[in-house]
Amino acid sequence: MRRRGSVSRVISPPIFGEVRSLPAGRQAVRISLWSEESINVEKITMSRFYVPPDAVKGGKIYAGKEESHHIIDVMRLREGDSVTVFDGTGKEYSGIIESVKNKSVVIAVDKIAAAAAKSPVEISLAQAMPKKDKMDYIVQKATELGVREIIPIESERTIVRAAKDKAAYKTDRWRKIAIEAAKQCGRNDLPDLKEIRSVIDLLKDFRRYDGIIMPCLSKKTVPLKSALGRLKDPKRLLLMIGPEGDFTPGEIAAAEANGALLVSLGRLVLKSDTAAIAALAVLNYALIT
User: Fold this and answer.
1) Residues whose CB is less than 8 angstroms from the CB of residue 41 and which lie 6 or more positions away in sequence, other chains included
2) What rounded mean pLDDT belongs to the chain?
3) Among 233, 223, 204, which Cα is nearest to 262's?
4) Domain ranges of the chain
5) How far is residue 46 CA from its own chain's centroid?
6) pLDDT in tens, 115-166
7) Which of 58, 89, 239, 248 has the fewest CB atoms within 10 Å, i.e. is most exposed?
């Protein structure tokens, strides 16, 4: 049996040969399967977790109930194990689990990593809410792609409309998804997840941005590459993605009148979730990388 804490970066398939997925925050590890007593999921030295900024006090990190459960019961880490923790504001801490008492974890901070350089362009995503759980997927991928702000919007053609009593629940769910995505991708800050708004209401905030990109099916669109060439060193950019049936002509006209650039994402019509990820990837390549 391997000694506790040794690291291997290969996954050995279990007895039946299937590949197991690993929890968020965990890299690939070798799983040893000999007997119930000798099963040892070998811990990497830096498992990655999230705490809010106020959980860091006096050189210690006090993990909350959910993250303590993740550390103890999911990742099966113990006192003396090394962990990495980020606070969603850009700070990342390396430390050692100091104590595990009453299902609560205290971490002693060894090192605070310098905040990563700020992105030269902050991208906000205004996303019309699609059907089923596609918004969950969009929030996850937008977080991985470095979006600074996510604004769920309701268009006149939006099928899914959040009841007032469920809007807070949805927003909280999306925040949790963003946290898990940030754990996985190594991001130390979190996107600012805004409350659900209408397209027309969002027009009031256009002045906050140096450019507004609106993919749509209007005949007045120009290729995205051409639209980006019109922007003069933008620092804050808003990407607006419509519902499956596109924005209405009235919404498109109102956005254009307030400065939005109407763009095409190619010769094929993309679904709303595909359009969001494709456009964000292009913006990252053209403006950031």
Assistant:
1) 29, 31, 76
2) 85
3) 223
4) 45-113, 122-288
5) 20
6) 777 889 999 999 999 988 899 999 999 999 999 999 999 999 988 777 766 7
7) 58
